[in-house]
Amino acid sequence: MEEKFDCIIVGAGVAGLAAAMTLARRNMKFLLIEKGEFPGSKNVSGGVLWGSDLAKLVPGYWEEDAGWDRFINHRRLTFMDDQSAFSVDFKSSHFNETPYTGVVVLRSRFDRWLAEKVEEAIAESDFAMDSFIAPNILVEEILMENGTAVGIRTGEEKFYADSVIIAEGVNNLLTRQAGLQDHYVPADHMLTGIKEIIRFDQKVLEDRFQLHGKSGMSNEFVGFATDGIEGGGFLYTNRDTLSVGLVLGLKDLRDKGKAPYDILNTFKAHPVISDMIRGGDVVEYSAHVVSSGDKRVMPEKLYKGGLLICGEAANLLMNAGKAIQGMDYAMRSGILAAETISDAKEKGDFSETAMKRYQTALEESYVMKDINNFQDAVHLLHDPVMTQKVPNLICDFGRKFFSIKNEPTKKARTLLGESVRSHSSYWELMKLGIKGGKAL
Amino acid sequence: MSTLLTYISIQDGKVKRSSLETLARCNELAEQSGRKSAALVISDQAGKSAELLAGCGADVIYTMEHPIFKNHLNTPLLRALSAAMDVVKPDLLAFASTEGSKDLLGALAANRGAAALADVSEFELTDDGVSAKRPVMASKIIASVQAKGWPVLVSVRSGSYDTATGTTDPGIEEIPFAFEEADLRITLKEILSATGDKIDLSEAETVIAAGRGVKDEEGRKLIEELADVLHAGVGASRALTEAGAYDASLQIGQTGKVISPQLYIGVGISGAIQHVAGMTNSKVIVAINKDPDAPIFEIADYGLVGDLYKILPPFIEELKKIKG
Amino acid sequence: MKFYVCIKQVPDVNAPLQIKDGELIQDSDRNIMNAYDASALEEAIVMKEAHGGEIEAVLIGPEKARETIRKALAMGADSGTLIQTDENTDFDSLGYASLLAAFFRDKEYDYILCGKQSQDTDAGLTGSMLAELLGLPYVTNAVGITVQNEKLMVKRQGDTGQEIIETSSPALITCSNDMNDPRIPSLKGIMQSKRKPVDTIPASELSAAEMSEPKTRVHGFSEKPAREPGKKFEGEPAEIAAQVAQLLDSAENVI
Ligand SMILES: Cc1cc2nc3c(=O)[nH]c(=O)nc-3n(C[C@H](O)[C@H](O)[C@H](O)COP(=O)(O)OP(=O)(O)OC[C@H]3O[C@@H](n4cnc5c(N)ncnc54)[C@H](O)[C@@H]3O)c2cc1C
Ligand SMILES: Cc1cc2nc3c(=O)[nH]c(=O)nc-3n(C[C@H](O)[C@H](O)[C@H](O)COP(=O)(O)OP(=O)(O)OC[C@H]3O[C@@H](n4cnc5c(N)ncnc54)[C@H](O)[C@@H]3O)c2cc1C
Ligand SMILES: Nc1ncnc2c1ncn2[C@@H]1O[C@H](COP(=O)(O)O)[C@@H](O)[C@H]1O
Is this structure's pTM higher than 0.90? Predict the structure, then answer.
């Protein structure tokens, strides 16, 4: 029989790859298993990888042309009604400095590139011949003995390790199998993400969005974007494509009997969006479940003896309006999980108590601090007042404020008052304002 | 005067339509470039077969006759083709793209030091060779290719050109050929012929193609009935040839046959690119599939969404009525 | 028996493609083992499992194609050779066949297996070219092979039916993917593959003697004019069946 591994990681997404890289750097013997044909093959999505943890995993990654598409130095938050868009727009060359604080990645490319980097790290480790990335293998079971994970099973084959990291993503069957998440997760807190990749001539894209070199823009949308369904829209500039899509509440979709694809088409037909995507060719369409970032769907416990759960398998994700953060949380949690394992190896203790340090570390990191602190914002974002009335009101105000007619001009405060009365009430906004004030 | 030579495939005593298409193109190019167009028949009864080519528009027909050619064997054919090239010294040797010619093209090119362009959909003479178009990437993309230096070997996809006609009777010239059985380094043990007197798929005006949706004997009966009404050839997707439900020679697509009938009816076929690669040049495409999002509907002129077991019976009835 | 299997790394035709200034660009740079070669390899592995022997996979390509050799080793090949080219060299079939011929010149083997064609270019030339350059008897488009006293009974798919052909060593066979379903490497296979030997030979070392000017060149790509989707008929089967049958007669005149 093959010798036992220090760790087996299930899933070569951002979380699994980050864990693998950390283990390789710490000279551990591990096996990273991915069910897709290669890392990233199952991952048609992409988006902005926020923060600078990538620079820790792959120092100087920005010098390489591969893997990542653009860095974000231009951000925009847009409120929409059916005709208008009112944006908060921020662009700064402060963001041009490395390490960047947000890079756009296309996962099919990024994951594969990161996997190559992990292979390089393996080759430099003491276990060049004994650590593996194994694609095209589906892990069907986590092997447990006395409540402690001891390995995995795929088909007829069993492989053993001191520890297992589950990094299987949002469809967390193994997490449930291990009893760390209820089998029933209410759809209330799940969203569906749909996205199209639209291709342009690179020069056209760069001119249209004022991009230089590898600079890029991210734009989030609230309001008409989702046609009354809770959620939001996004648009990112990739190298020569745009990612345009929506995240939509599953329950709300079902209750209102709407199809995500129709809503995406309405979104794309909005005058503001259609101006941005004009002339492009849709080259890919994808849809994927994504968690809402509501803490209520997070497993309470992310560990067992010899077992850790990270990334979206643990529903680590937040969408509090200004950005979807999932990949950065996946990355950090993967790093923390691997660090916990390597410490455990040093002490020769993979017990549940030893594994608990992972959750403590996660609680102390920005990941859980932010998730805890911004829960109200998450709830607010899924409030119908926020997805409909507020954007309408803001756009109404914008329309009045920015139009110049040949008649006496009202003061902004008056205009705002009118807009508020016609779309909502001061009382409703007060409530929202208080909530919002607390939330942010 | 230099020559454009077309190899003529004879199957079951008939000239393959795709060979006549290739010959037609060579006739045309010969006329444009002031060359001769010649046809080459290699068979156990080449003399007799050559008579089938009366009025094909070629200037001359070369024949090579030997009993060894009764069945397809690459070694003697290779020798024969090489010998013919020594005699005729053609600028161009063109084949219809068939399993028979695919078996030879590479070896002949290597043997003669000639450039080879396989499976082209268009070709043209240039000053010093041939330029052609050929589908690549499972026929999603067209590549423009160029071969330099004479002679050039090409094989031409069926349906790329109209068939040849002419008024004059070409002269027939026999090229002597000898062959020792001992030189055959491989032995043909057996031929499992599948087609019999059925309609040849690559020549049929109408083709019915069955896919995985055709699940059982009942489904295959419906396909058969439909083919009977329309005098159609029957083909299949890989899903069914692989499962043994249809003979492998009936596979349509990248691995199988390329067809270009007037009417193609795909029944229970999803429309994977490798299948589509073999039938996109059909004039009218009809698809029957219960999945409204099946990719085949993206290329079908008439898409019937529904269960084939419910659609085929009334469809066949209606066609019978129309047919009288 | 010693088998050599010639495998090629090809772009995945299912991945999105674009043409920019006549160049073919594959955004995701997704490359796989040519499906026909995977079938050839699978067949060799099955023969080895039943009758013993040794399998070596040979690939001409750039460094990044090494992963395809690794895949072959994970499936069950015993060793591999990478005939290494620069990132952007692209040969025509005769180019590949000449390089392979140079490689095989001083090798001992029973059978060389190739794919019947490349999935990306569909050329289908290299196999029989290589056989001719090496002076080997060959069979193309094999859909089945059985071993009988060191000889191979090859079932070849011809135009109208199948031919059973007997070959003795040495010979070359090109394989169709209709032959089998290539295995997906098992985890054990993947783990063992790391310790299997892979030889690297710079293509320049082989090419000097054998290569001549390429005789064919690709000088551009264009989009195939797409077929427009026609009309979709949904509803009562009998109704839509009758409707379409009528249209095929009256509007299209094809029945
Ligand atoms: C439309 C959309 C847009 C998004 N935009 C952003 C964004 O802009 N920024 C951002 O930060 N986040 C974004 N996210 C969220 C982000 O994609 C996820 O949070 C992130 O991918 C989670 O990473 P992960 O490694 O935990 O899981 P994944 O990336 O899902 O990886 C899990 C891997 O495990 C493999 N796997 C699963 N089960 C098994 C098994 N049993 N055996 C073997 N392998 C297995 C899978 O194939 C997969 O490769 C978006 C999500 C969606 C749907
Ligand atoms: C290198 C390579 C070469 C290949 N070459 C070829 C080739 O030459 N030819 C080829 O065909 N394939 C080829 N393939 C395989 C190809 O990719 C597909 O797998 C194959 O074409 C699928 O066949 P199918 O459409 O019959 O089956 P499926 O894809 O399974 O589709 C079956 C369809 O039937 C429909 N259906 C099911 N039941 C019913 C019903 N009752 N009524 C109506 N509709 C129903 C379903 O909705 C479905 O769309 C090749 C693949 C590779 C990798
Ligand atoms: N670069 C290569 N390396 C190894 N074998 C190759 C290569 N190119 C072609 N072949 C072999 O030749 C077959 C395809 O020939 P062709 O269609 O002419 O490209 C493949 O299936 C391989 O067996």
Answer: yes
Chain C environment of B189 (Cβ under 8 Å): 153, 164-166
What residue of A is the nearest CA neighbor of C191?
A132
Q: Give the H or E element holding residue A261.
A: helix A260-269
Indicate if C71 and C170 belong to the same structural domain.
Answer: yes
**Contact flag A155-C186 (C-beta cutoff 8 Å):** yes
Residues in chain A: 440
Question: pLDDT at residue C210 above 60?
Answer: no
Q: Give residue A286's domain range.
A: 187-291
Atom of ligand 3 nearest to the CA of C126: 18
- Segments of chain A with pLDDT less than 50: 1
Question: Please, what are the domains in chain B?
Answer: 3-183 (3.40.50.620), 206-323 (3.40.50.1220)
C-beta atoms of C18 and A155 within 8 A: no
Question: Whose CA is closest to atom 29 on ligand 1?
Answer: A13
The finding on whether A53 has its CB within 6 A of some atom of ligand 1 is: no
Beta bridge partners of B96: B156
- The encoded tokens of residue B218 equal 């009942």
* Tens-place pLDDT, residues C72-114: 999 999 999 999 999 877 789 999 999 999 999 999 999 999 9
Say what the pLDDT of residue A405 is: 80
Residue at A82 is within a domain: no
CB contact under 8 Å between A134 and C194, yes or no, is: no
Q: Taking the CB of residue C42, how many other CB atoms lie within 10 A of it?
A: 21
Instruction: Compute the distance between CA of residue B35 and CA of residue B60 in angstroms, rounded to an integer.
Output: 12
Residue among C28, C186, C190 minimizing CB distance to A108: C28
pLDDT class for B195, splitting at 50, 70, 90? low
Crossing angle for the helix pair B99-112 and B74-88, nearest 10 degrees? Answer: 60
Q: Specify the DSSP class assigned to residue B320.
A: H
